[in-house]
Structure formats: C-alpha cells, structure tokens
Amino acid sequence: MASVPFDQLDGFIWMNGEFVKWADAKIHVLTHGLHYASAVFEGERAYGGEIFKLKEHTRRLHDSAKVLGFTIPYSEEVINDACRQLLRKQGFSDAYVRPIAWRGSEMMGVSAQSNKINCAIAIWQWPSYFDPEQKLKGIRLDMAEYRRPDPRTAPSKAKAAGLYMICTLSKHAAEAKGYADALMLDWRGHVAEATGANVFFVRDGALHTPTPDCFLDGITRQTVIELAKRRGLAVNERVIMPEELSSFSECFLTGTAAEVTPVAEIGQYRFTPGEISLQLMKDYTAEVTPKASVIAAE
C-alpha cells in the first residue's frame, strides 16, 4: 500500500480524454457517483509492462455501465490505448490499474438521466494484496455477517461501486478480529465469495467453486479454471453449502488483487495449502508474465 494518501501520490491520471496531474484529478462533492453509487470500475494488474487481459477488463467496464443504465463515452479501444499510454507515462512495469466511470453533478437526486458520464484511469504501484509470507502459509478468513444479495435486488453482474459497501464492512469486521478477510454467503445461505475475490476448494484432486449466479465471475477466476483444466484437473462449478467446508483439504482465493492466495482457515474450518493450490499459484504467475520477459530471463 502507499505510504501517503492516494490523493497525494505523484504522476498523472487519464480523465475524460486527457492526462492531468494527479493532484488535479478532482470531482465536485455533489457528484452523483459519490451520493448514489452510480459508478462502475475495474481492477487490473500490469506485469512486465503489459496489462493482463486488458481487453476483457475494458469490455466488462462497458458492460457494467450498461447494467447501470449509462454508456461510457469512450470506446473500448480508446480506453485500452489510454491504459497503455498511462502505464508508460507513469514509468511503471508492475502496477495496479483502476479505470472508473461515473455519473457527474449536473443533477442531484435519485434521477440523473442528464448527468455527464465521466471516465478516469489511475495507475499506481501496489504489491501483494495479502502479506507475502502469510500468503504462502495460507491466510485466515472469518465468516461475514453480510451476504451477497439476491440478483433481483442488486445489479450483481456489474462491477458496481455500491455492491462493495457490504464488502468493506465485512473486511473491516474481520480485520478487527485478526483475520485477513471474510467469506461471504449468499442470500440463500450458499458459499459465495470473499469480500473481493472468488473462492475455490480442493477435494480428492478436484476443484470445487461456487456458481457465480449472484456475484462476479471474475476474470482471474476464469483464468484459473482454464489453467486447472490444462493440467487435467476436474473443475466443479456448483452450489456449495457451508457445512461442506470440513470435507475440503485445500482452499484458495482468486482475484486481480489477490491473484492466487491459499487459505488456511475459514472460521472453524482448517485447510492446508497443498500441491494443487501452490501449483496454480505458479501457473498463474507464469500466465501473467509477458513471454518476452521469460525469454529474456532465459
């Protein structure tokens, strides 16, 4: 994490088609996105100067905006190019990339059809989401009080800012008790995900992961499923009940920030980071490493 507040970092931010100084990338306090969470965003990582699955992330950004009822005024190609240019302008090789789009301040109220749609991209250096040493041993998760909502009550297929309020509350509560994160159930009581990452379990050499019907089918999740299948591992996407957790030997999280992170504990349940979790960690690292970097290293 940054040692200074994020609004005081150096460099540039791409905002509404222009590169502006970091300190000048501001919005008004009466911006609709702040008051009513009418904002969508992406979390991406650059490795070796290349943003991993940039096109897929930008496509999801546009799709999320459509779910929230607005259209981003910049094409996917423009945003992709802006992300690449900004990464070079920031002078980073490995970094975190955050595009965001939101309704502006032209109307203040629940209704905001006339508001300008803004778009910005920020890039900063962000190391491992979890402590690297603890990550290898497996992190500890609490059981969250809040649950992922019924998709009939929330736009669960969008990476929308408002959906993360209960994630922040759940992660804060877990950290206050000494845990790294929390596992969330869905409104039916099924295992869903962590506060910002998808979850996988291992039993008898096969992967089991919740069906993403009320939370995001993460891009990292999709990548890890592909990597597992390349190794001939069975992947079962299905309903998982909390009482099943005692039957799994391994557990790990996946996400752009979390990458592949083994889990050692979820509440009363214990897991041992084993061969499959550690192998998929290595496979994911190899997958995101630009091929030119691998050749140069050889």
Structure overview:
The chain is α+β, with helices and mostly antiparallel strands and 298 residues long. It has 2 domains: 6-124, D-amino Acid Aminotransferase, Chain A, domain 1 (2-Layer Sandwich); 132-288, D-amino Acid Aminotransferase, Chain A, domain 2 (Alpha-Beta Barrel). Helices cover 29% and strands 27% of the residues. It has 8 helices and 16 strands. The strands form 2 sheets. Strands 8, 9, 10, 11, 12, 13, 14, 15 and 16 form a 9-stranded mixed β-sheet that branches. Strands 1, 2, 3, 4, 5, 6 and 7 form a 7-stranded antiparallel β-sheet that branches. The two termini are 31 Å apart. Residues 293-298 have low confidence and may be disordered.
Topology:
Blueprint: E1 12-15, E2 18-21, H1 32-36, E3 39-41, E4 44-47, E5 50-51, H2 54-67, H3 76-90, E6 95-103, E7 117-124, H4 132-137, E8 139-143, H5 165-176, E9 181-185, E10 191-194, E11 198-203, E12 206-210, H6 219-230, E13 235-238, E14 250-255, E15 259-266, E16 269-270, H7 275-288, H8 291-297
Parallel strand pairs: 8-9, 8-15, 12-13
Antiparallel strand pairs: 1-2, 1-7, 3-6, 4-5, 4-6, 6-7, 9-10, 11-12, 11-14, 14-15, 15-16
Helix pairs in contact: 2-3
